[in-house]
Write a structure and sequence with these properties.
The chain is of the alpha/beta class. The protein has two domains: 219 residues, Periplasmic binding protein-like II (D-Maltodextrin-Binding Protein, domain 2, 3-Layer(aba) Sandwich), CATH 3.40.190.10; 187 residues, 3-Layer(aba) Sandwich (D-Maltodextrin-Binding Protein, domain 2), CATH 3.40.190.10. Strand 1, helix 2 and strand 2 form a beta-alpha-beta unit. Keywords: Signal, Transport.
């Protein structure tokens, strides 16, 4: 998909007046020096290019501010937290996964965006309310604005499903998907892959909660050791060991198998859609993440919000102008088009000049929005070590290898995670 041009974004900005500033930019203008701020994010490759395009468009509208983007070396949210915890100087705008909102609030010097919103009497009703709430603490103070969102979706190779006479519209439950996967597994071709190690335990959480379980209880204690949790992990075990319809490989290998036409269905983030369509030589379709047909589907929201770090009033205001720009309908829609992420703005979905036409002409892009009423918080296990995620991953991998039962994998995960040091405020 062609990267949205700077001129196109800027034209929309000028046309709508969305990016008019608050008049503060003349403060310090006698020095004729732009206010310089840094923006730390996780995006690399085409996603990083989309970030750079957005920043260039911002510079055209805000010549008094210069934003330097810094992609964290590891390319993940844990890497940003590590950088923040060990660095001597904070960036001015930080991107953090929704599962880390509370950790950011508890441990980092943050300026709540609510203060700027109240000062400008800014209307936030255009944000998807389910996404806006992900930036709040227990008292409902808004600390961050949502930048992008994603959900796990089921991608399918239309050619392979058609050859097997499988209607993708009927892939509604885990069992529907399992039966279809068995039907399409033959020779070197596999039926399904759930990216269970993606972003910590994001997809595992979606499975456990869609089977009726929970990752944590109301007191933030581990709750995934349950019949529902066991059923979710056992489902993965059965796909690999019993049906042999899911390849025993890591996510990157499965991704390539899907592109090579050797994997019929691939459960991954909706933010992968644009990349898959660029690279695949077949039509890539999408359907909603499955349910168990008994419990309400629960979809942990992926993606990230933007935080302002404490610095100087001038730089904090510059950071706010940048966040307003990239979360506006125009700026946010441009990034969504370039990457496949969901926009966080309802009007961007509706407007033909933003995402309306794309969503109408390419229904595969509409699928993540079907989950909007089913969103739940992406859980971060509250320890001071990100290894909590990897502990669970490693135990599940051992279950998939028949070295443990599904229940043992969950029980030992819980035991090992509880032994980690509790998180402490910075």
């Amino acid at each position: 998909m062609k990267i949205t041009t700077i001129a196109a974004i800027s034209a929309l900005c000028l046309l709508t007046g969305t990016y008019q500033t608050s008049g503060w930019q003349n403060q310090g203008a006698s020095l004729n020096q732009p206010v310089e701020i840094t923006f730390q994010h996780v995006h690399k490759g085409p996603y990083g290019t989309a970030v750079d395009t957005l920043i260039d468009a911002f510079h055209q509208q805000h010549p008094h501010i210069r934003v330097t983007a810094v992609a964290t070396e590891s390319g993940d949210y844990e890497g940003i937290l590590r950088d923040l915890s060990t660095g001597s100087q904070f960036p001015h705008v930080v991107q953090a996964g929704y599962s880390y909102t509370q950790e950011m609030i508890d441990n980092m010097p943050i300026v709540p965006v609510e203060a700027f919103i109240e000062e400008e009497n800014m209307d936030t009703s255009d944000f998807f309310p389910e996404l806006l709430s992900l930036g709040t603490d227990k008292s409902d103070t808004l600390y961050s604005l949502p930048f992008v969102a994603s959900t796990p979706v089921l991608y399918y190779n239309q050619d392979l499903l058609k050859a097997a006479s499988i209607d993708p519209a009927k892939l509604k439950t885990f069992d529907d998907v399992r039966q279809a996967a068995k039907a399409m597994t033959k020779g070197e071709q596999y039926g399904i892959y759930y990216s269970f190690t993606m972003s910590g335990n994001w997809i595992v959480q979606a499975m456990i909660e869609s089977f009726g379980g929970r990752m944590l209880d109301d007191q933030k204690e581990i709750a995934f050791v349950s019949p529902e949790g066991e059923k979710a992990v056992q489902h993965l075990v059965d796909l690999i060991q019993v049906d042999q319809s899911m390849p025993p490989v890591n996510e990157s290998v499965a991704y390539q198998q899907f592109l090579d036409g050797k994997l019929a269905m691939f459960v991954n983030t909706s933010a992968t859609l644009a990349a898959l369509q660029r690279e695949a030589e077949f039509h890539v379709g999408t359907v909603a993440f499955p349910s168990d047909s008994i419990h309400p589907r629960k979809i942990p929201v992926g993606g990230n919000g933007l935080f302002i770090m404490k610095s100087t009033p001038e730089k904090e205001k510059a950071a706010w102008e940048f966040i307003k720009f990239v979360t506006s309908p125009e700026g946010n829609a441009a990034f969504a088009k370039d990457t496949g992420y969901m926009t966080v703005r309802q009007s961007a979905v509706e407007r033909e000049d933003l995402l309306g036409q794309l969503l109408r002409e390419k229904p595969e892009y509409r699928t993540p929005y079907l989950h909007a009423t089913e969103f739940t918080r992406w859980v971060s296990i509250p320890t001071s070590e990100s290894s909590a995620y990897y502990i669970m991953q490693n135990n599940i991998i051992q279950a998939l290898s028949y070295k443990k039962t599904a229940l043992q994998a969950l029980e030992e995960s819980a035991e090992q995670i509880r032994a980690l040091r509790p998180i402490k405020n910075r």
